[in-house]
Specification:
2 helices; 3 strands; about 30% strand; single chain; Metal Transport, Frataxin, Chain A; alpha+beta; about 35% helix
């Protein structure tokens, strides 16, 4: 999955950018309060993308 597709999905679901890390950005879901790092690679593995979405409470 392309990083920009994942970020678009996160924003559509209500997640917001919290801060920049060394090699990743931190996004938070205000509904659940959970925070998750998102790598700055242009391509993100499908399994990792699903994990990020699931952890933030966006995919079941």
């Amino acid at each position: 999955m392309k990083r920009r597709e994942l970020l678009r999905r996160l924003r559509q679901e209500g997640c917001v950018f919290l801060r920049a890390g060394g090699k990743h950005d931190i996004y938070v879901n205000p509904k659940t309060g959970k925070k998750q790092p998102v790598l700055r690679h242009s391509e993100i593995d499908e399994h990792l993308a699903r994990h990020i979405l699931r952890y933030l409470g966006l995919e079941q």
